[in-house]
């Protein structure tokens, strides 16, 4: 893939690392590439970060044809830039593309585009503890027609954002509200794809949770509203009676890369971990009889986020006295350690930029 580069002649001032939050600041450049079925992928370019120009009839604006990924780049103490499992993101992006009939991107091109862009904006990688450069690749249908058809023209873009912690709580436990009315996804739908529409469907419950002072919603399955699925931007894991349980991937939840990494670490550490259906009833019983030892969410943005309290139908359940537990802490230390180069990457997960 040939990438044309147009340098930004007016670079911005970098934000202070204390003010980063999540996804508020953007770097000086972005990557763009176009696709249509006559030419395939073409016109790969890195250009100054700025607004996109779209037809008001563009498919994405009307029919939500959009998928995205989320990943991070880190600067190690010895000055190397590392990506975390980028080929997993490339694969998932293509699974999402398949579901929405958007064009797939060769994995090597996906990773190369990210590497080139990160290298150009490498001075934007923050180095304070808990910070990183968040990478947001996204792909959308961009035909100028209102007919509902398979997408013909598509646009792939990558933007970069220096970030701190996703939740204001940082690594302190968050409070989660279990949603019993709205559902996020059903099997056969788009739950396993990382598409914008899933987040649109989640927003009403998210607003309700936020207004009640909760960080996020915990979704139940869309058919019986009986089984635990995932949180708004994270997969979930529960340690019950010495065993880690996480909802199985049955098509309605996102196959998280952090989830997969946690399962691989748990296996290596000799901690039993099982992927299966977990009912809300089983979960609340485990809190009541004291066998629920720890709960946490896992995802790229938050890495590991301990869950200190869940509420369902007005009833509150405190978990581990509202404190972070040892397995959550171990997973956080291992994953962030590997990502930042402080812990040896015995899994071969990191990919160096250049
Ligand atoms: N589930 C949802 C709905 C998400 O948005 C995310 C975040 O990407 C995750 C799970 C976690 O996935 P990953 O670990 O690949 O970031
Ligand atoms: C991520 O963790 O990368 C996500 O995509 C979560 C997000 C929707 C902010």
CATH class of the largest domain: Alpha Beta
Helix-and-strand structural type = alpha+beta
| Mean pLDDT across all amino acids | 96
- Ligand catalogue: pyridoxal-5'-phosphate, 2-OXO-4-methylpentanoic acid
Number of beta-strand segments: 18
CATH topology of the largest domain: D-amino Acid Aminotransferase, Chain A, domain 2
The second-level CATH architecture of the largest domain is: Alpha-Beta Barrel
Oligomer: single chain
Low-confidence stretches: none
Residues in helix, %: 10-25%
Protein architecture, described:
The protein is of the alpha+beta class and 354 residues long. The chain contains seven helices and 18 strands. It has helices at residues 59-63, 86-100, 107-120, 196-211, 257-268, 280-288, 326-340; strands spanning 4-5, 29-36, 40-48, 66-68, 71-75, 81-84, 132-141, 154-163, 174-178, 216-220, 228-231, 235-240, 243-247, 273-276, 292-299, 303-312, 315-318, 350-352. The longest helix is centred in the middle third of the chain and has 16 residues, at 196-211. The chain is globular and about 60 Å long. The structure holds pyridoxal-5'-phosphate and 2-OXO-4-methylpentanoic acid (COI). Pyridoxal-5'-phosphate is lined by residues 70, 230, 233-235, 254, 256-259, 299-300.
Compose a concise summary of this entry.
The chain has 354 residues and is of the alpha+beta class.
